[in-house]
Amino acid sequence: MDLAICFALALIVLPLYVFIIKRRYQRVPPGSLGLPIIGQSLDLLRAMRANTAEQWLQERTKRYGPIWKLRIFGTPTVFLQGQVANKFIYTSDGSLLSNKQPASIRRLLGERNLLEMSGDDHKRIRGALLSFLKPEALKQNVKKMDEEIRLHLEMYWHGEEEVKVLPLAKILTFNILASLLFGMESGARRDKFIELFQILTDGMLSFPINLPFMRFSHSIKAHMKIKNMLSDLLHEKRAALEQQVPSTNQDLITCMLNLRNEDNSAALTDEEILDNCIITMVAGHDTSSILITFLVRLLAGDPSVYAAVVEEQEEIAKRKASSEPLTWDDLAKMKYTWRVATETLRMTPPVFCSFRRALQDIEFGGYVIPKGWQVIWTLGTTHMDENIFPNPSKFDPMRYEQATPPPFSFVAFGGGPRMCPGYEFSKLETLATIHYLVTRFRWKFSIADNSFSRDPMPVFNQGLTIQIEEKKQFDI
């Protein structure tokens, strides 16, 4: 009797279950998942390296609409675009979308970094980073940043006739970060850090297969060495605090070690400090160096923008002695230069795409994003929307003079509660570097082809090689 009842219930429940599952997947966005595991991963990576990834995505958007599915890096994925999608992504709480990144990124940046956090953990970690990166704290570090830029130019630019901009910009931004975030002075340890970080970032968008001949394997080894070096540095900073050794500069590690809960326990674990030092270094090192390189390329090819930037920067320099460092007030006056940087970020954002993971079935735009699926969006698709930015293919820094873009339309630094905590740091770093470049040097391209590809960050042909000429007494 019991068996008959169970059989009858199965006959009723099973078709209902199949109907629900079928209906659920009928509402999944259109598109193709492609081959198992591989999906469209190789096609997308090839398009990125050919710098045609935006076109690759837009071709599919024209075919399927603004919401469509694909499979990348082994995971079924939904592509979203537009201002509404940006707002949904950046404001969703931790119950809908998690910050879980592709396996390659997660394993290289650590499980407890800000990109992986949601809800209260995200607020706690972001607050810890902002305690060091907020404007009030950064004002104390402008002089140190200025010193690093001057030293870099003396070592790598002055006396040279030709330089490769991107490799030098990476050295500069790394040294600034190492000095200000970690309190790490120049020397062998800092040089080893920059070498290892470059190997780490090379494998961030790769298949997470740890075999000796794979790029990901080299990046994993670099990650372990970086973490060990940072762990040694953390123990040194903790020992100095316990011994109450005075320090003239407050670095990020010391700042995070000093953060306490109400019961005086440590606000962050050692793992959280280490992982967020790595993500801060990776984010700050690559994005700022690439923005500086894009600006050097732009100024070499656009005489009118170059002239306006030089005029603004020389006006600031004329009021200062040559040995006098830039101040917070000087940087605040560089309004046109920052508009140029903002327009550069709009048209060529260093970061191509970002990821989230659906924690439950999500209804969006008339479709269902199934639980466990990945969500991907790109910055450039909204930045080039003519309904938001008229004539989007035209470089026009004055579009920001009268009004700021609508919320969640310019997302080079994220948006809402997901705004990048390093925004002000990157702004100061970029403005100070451009100030010294345009007041001390003139330059022109050494080769005709100054294009770039993405791997996953922009990589320039021959590192963007330029011929430089020093200005006599900076022509001021």
Briefly summarize what is shown.
The chain is an alpha+beta fold.
How would you explain this protein's 3D organization?
- Belongs to the cytochrome P450 family.
- Its cofactor is heme.
- Heme binds at residue 420.
- One of its GO terms (biological process) is sterol metabolic process.
- The protein has helices at 2-26, 41-49, 53-64, 83-91, 103-109, 119-133, 135-138, 142-156, 165-182, 188-202, 215-242, 252-258, 270-301, 303-318, 328-332, 335-347, 379-383, 423-440, and strands at 68-72, 75-80, 97-98, 162-164, 353-358, 362-364, 367-369, 374-378, 441-445, 452-454, 458-460, 465-470.
- With 476 residues, it is an alpha+beta fold.
- α8 runs antiparallel to α9 and α13 (270-301) runs parallel beside α18.
- A hairpin with a 2-residue loop joins β6 and β7.
- The strands form four sheets. The protein has a five-stranded mixed sheet with strand order 1-2-8-5-3. The chain has a three-stranded antiparallel sheet with strand order 4-12-9.
- It has one domain: Cytochrome P450 (Cytochrome p450).
